[in-house]
Amino acid sequence: MSISRILLGTAAAIVSIGLGGVLPVWAQDNPAFPAGRPEALQTTGVPGAPNATTTIDGRVLPNPPAPFAGRIDLNALQSTPSWAPRIVPPEGAPNILLIMTDDVGFSAPSTFGGVIPTPALDEIAQAGLRYTNFHSTALCSPTRAALITGKNHHSVGFGVVSEQSTGFPGYNSVIGPENATIGRILIENGYRTAWIGKNHNTPDFAQSPAGPFDQWPNGMGFEHYYGFQGGDTSQWQPNLFLNTTQIYPFQNNPKWNLITAMADDAIDWMNTLNDVNPKMPFFLYYVPGGTHAPHHPTPEWIDKIHAMHLFDGGWNSLRDTIFANQKRLGVIPQSADLTPWPDGLLKNWDQLGPDEKKLFIRQAEVYAAYLAYTDHEIGRVIQAVRDMGKFDNTLIIYISGDNGASAEGTPNGTPNEGLVFNGVELPVAEQMKFYDAWGTDKTYPHMAVPWAWAFDTPFKWTKQVASYFGGTRQGVAISWPKVITDKGGIRNQFAHVVDIVPTLLEVTGIPAPAVVDGVAQKPIEGTSLAYTFDKANADAPTRHHTQYFEMFGMRALWHDGWMLSTVPLNMPWNMASAAIADPATAFKWELFDINKDWTQDHDVAAQNPAKLREMQDRLWTELASHQVLPLDASVASRVVEARPGTTAGRTEFSFSGRRMVGLPRAAAPNVLNTSYVIKADIEVPAGGAEGMINTIGGRFGGYGMYLLKGKPVFVWNLLGLKEVRWEGPDVLAPGKHTIEFDFAYDGLGFATLAFNDTSGVGHGGTGTFKIDGAVVATQTMDRTIPLLLPIDESFDIGADTLTGVSADYQVPFDFTGTIDDLKITLDPPKLTAEQIAKLQAALQRSLQQVNQ
Description:
Layout: H1 3-13, H2 25-28, E1 43-44, E2 53-54, E3 60-61, E4 86-87, E5 95-100, H3 119-127, E6 129-135, H4 140-149, H5 182-188, E7 192-199, E8 224-229, E9 240-242, E10 245-247, H6 258-276, E11 282-287, H7 299-306, H8 314-329, H9 354-387, E12 394-400, H10 417-421, H11 428-431, H12 449-454, H13 469-472, E13 473-479, E14 489-491, E15 495-496, H14 500-508, E16 515-516, E17 519-520, E18 546-551, E19 554-559, E20 562-566, H15 583-586, E21 589-593, H16 609-625, H17 636-639, E22 652-655, E23 660-664, E24 675-684, E25 691-698, E26 701-708, E27 711-718, E28 722-727, E29 735-745, E30 765-771, E31 774-781, E32 794-797, E33 818-827, H18 833-851
Parallel strand pairs: 2-4, 3-16, 5-11, 5-12, 6-14, 6-15, 7-8, 7-11
Antiparallel strand pairs: 1-2, 6-13, 8-9, 9-10, 12-13, 16-17, 18-19, 19-20, 20-21, 22-33, 23-32, 24-29, 24-33, 25-26, 25-32, 26-27, 27-28, 29-30, 30-31
Helix pairs in contact: 6-9, 7-9
């Protein structure tokens, strides 16, 4: 048989699949899997030519390769080439700009009645629609996971933020292969994709330079990533990444700010695509860190807001102003009630002294400046879309906040958010020392709780509280001039973040995939909002009928206009409090008829016992079917939960000594609440050496081992409040030396948290500093950092990135000698049988009290 006959026979044996690809064999024979839809495919150009394009069936991703459609003979002159068509979205599919800010309450922006100017959000609302009944999950990571998957947060492993993940399916912070993101779906259908801004959906145990990177934006369908990892970061010195590489563009640039840098990057990315091919469709997921703490606007924006005197009347007066604005704008019903101020829980403005008022006004002005600044930079991105001539066919969805306004600043606010995470509240007199620096890189600030409550007007409660609209109601504006003609319209239908993905799929004409990379996909759980784009449907009944909420054991259910809610027991600003032992039974229930009570102001549970029971039963069904169980009302203990990753089960760590920077906190040895030894073998060259040997943390907490003008130093920075130092008396001579810091902890450690007991953390201990085996300094610390080092700082060897733990030096403070070896050994406290018995007994008593 000739070679040509063999070739022809092989080609004939290939199953014809057409331009749309082929379903896998198992799917072809599976009656539950529909047949392909070749008649629905759209093609352009000459088949086989370089200009050929096609849409795809889209239910199996990536699209199976089309068979070669040309002819192969013995040589090229007798053969016919053929190119597979380039995959494009359906004709008319819009560009997509999906924007979401951070920690913005419903009534903070001017668009929804607030006093803070947000002209970019106003612009989108005036060019399109304003949504008044849109909901988040009440917390950052969970909302973002639901937003990019179209599935409820527990369904995709994000029952809480990634820093608090646990080993249950609904809480492990892993968006598995069965939950392809909207970025993955769109890129496989011909879109170019980018994620610019906050990434809070990579497990903290997978954020190291060693990966794995499948849970990073680049591994979830986004070709370009420019942003930061984790819950928050300094906007002056962020832990910033370009794809999977940490970058430091802010060094030696004191006016650099991440909010502007992200807008610059977004504009550059879009313009690059436009220059290469103006018809190339894009999906830009643009999620700046404003206004999550730290509140870091530029000085110019603080001056602008200060000159407006928006907050001089205090938080009670602000609520009244906002409430009147909201009724005037029509973003709440005229019949809506303003929920009462929580007297006894938070102070009224007229109860404050002069210094308190001065400090709190400053906090609110810096926060407002941050929001106005963020919105301004978002406006630049929107203007870039206009400048490219693409505004009419770009679907812009601007979600104002990923949860309600944040109450994580304590009732007095804080100059350093890390203090709150460790259960420390500073009095006003101490905070006044930071008054002039508030908002600069010398602070990591957060405003007082009453401002957060006011920025959630007319609702009650705040971020973290999933059972009340103060925690979950977000203002949203959507424009798409080519389709949405009801300019400035208002939509009151119930909606949730899970509704965004199905909306994008409907407007692009792209189906939700059934299989991605050979893995069957979980079904989309949201409901498309596209029906609301039509003016004729302005008052149409909502199509999203049931939605559960859960966060830290607090639960709620919305169902056809009724809302079942649990009343909070732990305050959202008590971050280090012990957990509620039995969240399934501990909470009081309230019931609201939202059709008559827009703001959850009138509990009607007592008058409607049958409806209460019906809603409770329905809620438990929802919780069981979305991986919400087991309920967990812990906060602090989940921060220190053992997780998989590079540190799991290890107590000994050995590093080669090569310069290594940027290792995230979760991938580094955890020296909190334990005894430990840090030992470095170094070599000092002729002429001496200085610089950082090893550090974790920075200006707002952490330790550093370094040489300062040749002398060895070890420093503990205790959350920016106190610096404890051990110093060697002599300059190290040229040659090899061993520097060792040995700390003996005097508490029971993290192990007590397993028994819902925080008494083992934050104790003191004695540190011994040795040079070449000889003790040169011994000192006792009365207290240590109990729970959490700064989440945006890193573990560095041979240099110090971002901010320094001491004013002794300026970053990067590169070590000018040689580090031959660095070893860290942990020696966690070991509970005795008697101690365990006492802790177990105390836990049992707590459970019995709850059940009684």
